[in-house]
Design a protein that fits this description.
Layout (H helix, E strand, L loop, with lengths): L3 E7 L4 E7 L6 E8 L1 E4 L2 E4 L5 E9 L6 E7 L14 E5 L4 E5 L17 E5 L5 E5 L3 E4 L37 E4 L3 E5 L8 E3 L4 E4 L5 E6 L2 E5 L3 E5 L5 E4 L7 H15 L6 E5 L5 E16 L8 E14 L2 E4 L4
Parallel strand pairs: 8-23, 12-13
Antiparallel strand pairs: 1-2, 1-22, 2-7, 3-4, 3-6, 4-5, 8-9, 10-11, 10-19, 13-14, 14-18, 15-16, 16-17, 17-18, 19-20, 21-22, 22-23, 23-24
Length: 329
């Protein structure tokens, strides 16, 4: 395994935090920086756009870890290049850089369905036919947290809202043929589903009757479906296996988009978000520490570090009120 490098740029402090991960790091590591070159033992990395203060340090690796981390000062002449792309979500653990969910600027992309063209929904895990729909309207939802942010939809009027809770007095529910979509999920009327194809739990979780995979949730006569769980087949073109969303093909993709959409809807600089599973006591608490952190990584090119924008977060998982894993470094 080649050495993986991740650098966080803290411009206000004029320093960088560096994480280096490899199965072959010795316990004692020589780190040297000169201009824009970072050298760890015998491996050199080009960090174009960064200008380090010339320095040489020794970094010790803990015996139970496969990586090291350290902080380096930047030269006052270091100029960061402008990066116009959207933030990515990178998950970094002490032992490994486990996942990278890369997204360009987040958009509320319309599902890949056409008006008045019958589509068949299949379970992506087992190909079980779930529902049929001929879309009459395909409309965007106003926000990712659309049921709880209704007070922000109207200007100079509150007649649509309940005084006690601020929620809508009238339900937004898709009629037959309607598809309402958000960046991470879409809604259709419950009546489109074949009764024998799906199961609904006591906690309104919708699962496939053949493989028990989670498909979405049932609310007030409509169903919220995760993009990753469904694939399409047009009855007219006989095309099988199409994605409902061009950027979402896995659970990780879907969660990354949901998190990014929720962060964008938040007005807080460092929002704290809680995700809960229905019917269980599992909770994921997320604290977004930086929405737009400048970083350098060598994910695509071993000895050259490219600039990127990332979302830095801390998280913890809880089950039955007990902490299962702590926040990453």
């Amino acid at each position: 395994m080649k050495m993986r490098i991740h650098i966080d740029v803290l411009s206000r402090l004029n320093v960088v935090n560096v994480v280096a991960i490899s199965d072959f790091l010795p316990q004692e590591n020589i780190v040297q920086v000169e201009k824009s070159t970072l050298t760890i033992n015998d491996d050199k990395f080009d960090c174009e756009g960064l200008m380090f203060q010339n320095n040489k340090i020794v970094v010790m690796r803990n015996v139970d870890e496969t990586g090291i981390w350290f902080r380096l000062p930047l030269d006052s002449e270091s100029v960061l290049p402008v990066h116009n792309g959207g933030a990515s979500l990178h998950i970094i653990q002490k032992e490994d850089i486990s996942s990278v969910y890369k997204k360009s600027t987040l958009q509320n992309i319309k599902p890949q369905m056409a008006i008045d063209k019958e589509e068949v929904f299949y379970c992506k895990s087992c190909n079980n036919e779930l529902a049929r729909i001929r879309p009459g309207r395909i409309l965007p939802l106003p926000s990712s947290d659309w049921r709880h942010s209704a007070s922000n939809w109207f200007c100079c009027t509150t007649k649509h809202l309940r005084k006690d809770s601020g929620t809508l007095t009238e339900k937004i529910s898709p009629k037959l043929g309607d598809i309402f979509y958000s960046p991470a999920f879409f809604l259709i009327n419950k009546q489109h589903f074949l009764d024998s194809a799906v199961k609904i739990s006591d906690n309104d979780v919708l699962t496939c009757s053949d493989c028990d995979k989670h498909l979405g949730e049932v609310n007030d006569g409509f169903v919220s479906l995760w993009y990753y769980s469904i694939k399409l087949s047009s009855t007219e073109d006989k095309e099988f296996g199409g994605q409902t969303h061009p950027l979402i093909s896995s659970v990780g993709d879907n969660f990354a988009v949901l998190l990014e959409a929720t962060v964008q809807d938040s007005g807080s600089r460092m929002p704290r978000i809680v995700f809960k599973t229905r019917g269980t006591h599992k909770v994921l608490k997320v604290w977004v520490m930086d929405k737009d952190l400048t970083c350098y990584t060598n994910i695509t090119n071993g000895n050259h570090l490219a600039q990127d924008k990332m979302m830095k977060l801390a998280f913890e998982e809880q089950s039955n009120g007990k902490l299962e894993s702590s926040a990453p470094d």
